[in-house]
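Consortium newsletter contribution from the modelling node. Members have asked for a concrete example of what our holo predictions look like. Here is one, prepared for the calcium ion complex that several groups have been discussing at recent meetings.
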Amino acid sequence: MQDIHILIIEDEKKIADSLKQGLSENGFEVEVAYDGSIGWKIFKSRPFELVILDINLPGMNGYELCKAIRLANEAVPVVMLTAMNAVEDKIEGFDAGADDYIIKPFDFRELLVRIRALLKRIHTTVATGTLLQAGDLLMNLDSKQVTRNGQTVSLTAKEFQLLEYFLRNKNRVVSRADIALQVWDIDFDTRTNVIDVYVNYLRKKIDKGFDEPLIHTQVGMGYVLKDIS
Ligand code: CA
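And here is the predicted structure:
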């Protein structure tokens, strides 16, 4: 099995060191930072599969760090540690992009179970290719979730199918006849404008309010969803 690297950013030395020991004993490669800014430097220096992050830290606090980590890497799971058991802290943590939350003092076995679940989720997603992407738009085929620039986009079942078809054919012009056949399972009828209507619904949801549109009209040919970088 490939090595799994975990970064712990926690200023309480005792907690950080015992976590490192426990995780190392369970086969993980562990790096520790006792300070937020040092943790950020280490995070940027090499790839990690998971980050465990305290909230109250010298240097940069956990929320700031979590946001910075999310901007740099959308996929890496972040588990936040906190001594506070306030609902507001959890909400702020999730808003910052954390995947899970552990209240101190915690049971190590529980933390281990959660870490393994998060790692499994990431690996499953990558291995089975259930994520489709174009620029900052992500579609998860398992959870049926769509996000653009981190914001959830609510789609109807048909809009979802249409977007999935566009994503699977990104940067390729698809005709109305292709869409009719592949998404509606019907032969294209020039008397109806159902496809244009649905493409416009989709545009309103995924492109409106963003600088760069993903869906483009190719006059006389159809539509193309362009990847943006
Ligand atoms: Ca702390």
